[in-house]
Amino acid sequence: MARFAGRTALVTGAAHGIGRAIATRLHAEGASVLLADLDVDAATEVADRLGDGRAAARRCDVTAAADVAAMVAACVDAFGALDVLVANVGVASGEGFDGLDDEAWDRQVGPTLRGTIRCVQASMPRLLTSRHGGAVVMTGSVNGLSAFGNVGYSVAKAALPNLAQNLTVEYSAARVGEGQRPVRFNVVAPGTVRTRVWDTQHPDALVPLYPMGRLGEPDDIAAAVAFLASDDAAWVSGVTLPVEGGILAGPALAFQERNPG
Ligand SMILES: NC(=O)c1ccc[n+]([C@@H]2O[C@H](COP(=O)([O-])OP(=O)(O)OC[C@H]3O[C@@H](n4cnc5c(N)ncnc54)[C@H](O)[C@@H]3O)[C@@H](O)[C@H]2O)c1
C-alpha cells in the first residue's frame, strides 16, 4: 500500500522510539519524510537507512521557536511541500504533585504541550495549502485520559484531545481562506510502549494490567498514526484514538474479577 505516495510528512522526535517507527512507516508507505529531533546524529542514521532520496534529518528543539520555523522551512526546501505533521515529542520527568515546581512544569509542559502547539502553528500555512488536504497527528498518552500519575506530563497530554477538537473547528471548511482546504487534527494515545524511556524501569510488571497480554511496540502506534494521517481517515477529525492494549478497560476487568456477581 502506498497511501502516502507523493506526500511529505514531518515527524518530530523521530530519532528514537515511537517517532522513529512512525517516520519509518510513513516512508514505507511512500511518503517523503523529514525526521526532526534534538538528537540529529541518531535522526540522520535513521534517514540514511531509509534512503531512497525521500528521507532527511534536521536538528530541532521544539521548545525553540526559531528551530521550529527553520524545521518547517527545511521540509519545504527538501521536498517542496508539507502534507502531514506528526507532533510526537513529549517529555515526562516523573515528579509527584508536591515536586511540581515551575522548573518541573516547564521541563514537561514546554516540549509536550507548548512545543506541540508551536509545531502546529508553524506548519499551518503549508498544511492549509496541501493539495491532498493537510493532516496533523499528535502523540498523546493514556496518561492524558485517566489518572496514571506523573501529573505534570499527564495534564500536558490531557490538553491535546481538546486542542485537536478546537483546531478542527478553527480550520474547518467554513473558516479556511480561499484556495485553502480544511485540515484534520487527531491524537493517538498510547499505553505503555517499549522504548528507551522504560529502560531504567520495570515495564514487564505492567503486563498483567493489559487485557491484550503484552506491552505495546512502537510499530503498534505507527500503524494507528498512519491510519489517522491517511485518506482512510478522511472523515475523521478531532478524535483521540487510544492505542493501549485495552488498559483503559482493564480496571473494569479487575472490578469484575473481585465482584463476579
Ligand atoms: N513509551 C511510552 O510508553 C509512551 C506512552 C505514551 C505516550 N508516549 C509518548 O510518545 C512520544 C514518543 O515517546 P518515546 O517513548 O518514543 O520516547 P523516546 O525517548 O524514545 O523518543 C523521544 C524523542 O524525542 C526527542 N526529543 C525530546 N525532546 C525534544 C525536543 N525538545 N525537541 C525535539 N526532539 C526532542 C528525543 O531526542 C527522542 O528522539 C512522546 O510524546 C511520549 O510522551 C510514550
Automatic annotation (TrEMBL):
A Gene Ontology molecular function term of the record: oxidoreductase activity
InterPro entries found in the cross-reference section: KR_dom, NAD(P)-bd_dom_sf, SDR_fam
CDD domains named among the record's database cross-references: SDR_c (cd05233)
Source species, domain of life: Bacteria
Residue intervals of the Ketoreductase domain: 7-221
Similarity-based family: Belongs to the short-chain dehydrogenases/reductases (SDR) family.
Protein's recorded name: SDR family oxidoreductase
Source organism per UniProt: Knoellia koreensis
